[in-house]
């Protein structure tokens, strides 16, 4: 996914324009983490970022556009996947990356706000879908390589394996309020590995 696909304000030029975009997105993230989509006001974001209000309105135009660009930027800045040589090691690395992100006070609140925004705004929902599609695409080769090594059965839906790792962590973030620690991350990864090896994610004939 490129930044341009996220809509207005999503190009990545250099120099002052890039610095303005970075400042605005940082300010937008702060505002979202504090007050959710309802508290995301372009004028307030401009004040926080110390840039002209006209610049923010001209480049983004709406809070939904700003959320879309912020998600595109987050996808691009996310750490690359880890290759350990085993499916269990790779998926534990994936789970711990998700866990560290969601357990962070600012990032966890930011993701809660973005998920909430996606439930009531189609553009925010589309941006969130692109974000997760980018992350699944980044990590899916871990499962594909496991199929090639014979760790997983032929016909495994490798994208579903990756989704199964992070799903329990997001569920815990959004519903239980229980701590998101490395033990929870490892359990999520190990459960996904066990299910995948058992053929739960086989959707095609070998």
TrEMBL record:
Residues that span the membrane, as ranges: none
Statement: the UniProt record of this protein carries the keyword Transcription regulation: yes
Entry-linked Pfam families: TetR_C_11, TetR_N
DNA-binding region(s) in UniProt: 41-60
GO terms assigned for molecular function: DNA-binding transcription factor activity; transcription cis-regulatory region binding
Keywords, sorted A to Z: DNA-binding, Transcription, Transcription regulation
InterPro entries with a match to the protein in the record: Homeodomain-like_sf (IPR009057), HTH-type_TetR-like_transc_reg (IPR050109), HTH_TetR (IPR001647), Tet_transcr_reg_TetR-rel_C_sf (IPR036271), TetR_C (IPR011075)
Boundaries of every HTH tetR-type domain copy: 18-78
Protein name: TetR/AcrR family transcriptional regulator C-terminal ligand-binding domain-containing protein
């Amino acid at each position: 996914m490129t930044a341009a696909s996220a809509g207005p304000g999503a190009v990545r030029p250099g120099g002052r324009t890039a610095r303005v975009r970075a400042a605005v997105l940082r300010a937008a993230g702060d505002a979202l983490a504090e007050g959710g989509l309802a508290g995301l006001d372009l004028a307030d974001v401009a004040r926080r970022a110390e840039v002209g209000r006209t610049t923010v309105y001209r480049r983004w135009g709406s809070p939904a556009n700003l959320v879309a660009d912020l998600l595109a930027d987050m996808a691009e800045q996310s750490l690359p996947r880890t290759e350990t040589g085993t499916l269990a090691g790779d998926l534990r690395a994936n789970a711990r990356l998700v866990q560290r992100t969601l357990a962070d006070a600012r990032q966890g609140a930011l993701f809660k706000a973005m998920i909430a925004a996606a439930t009531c705004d189609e553009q925010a929902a589309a941006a969130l879908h692109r974000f997760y599609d980018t992350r699944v695409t980044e990590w899916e080769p871990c499962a594909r390589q496991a199929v090639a090594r014979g760790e997983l059965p032929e016909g495994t839906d490798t994208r579903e394996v990756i989704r199964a790792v992070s799903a329990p962590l997001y569920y815990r973030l959004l519903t239980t309020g229980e701590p998101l620690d490395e033990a929870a991350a490892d359990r999520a990864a190990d459960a996904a590995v066990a299910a995948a090896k058992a053929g739960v994610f086989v959707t095609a004939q070998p």
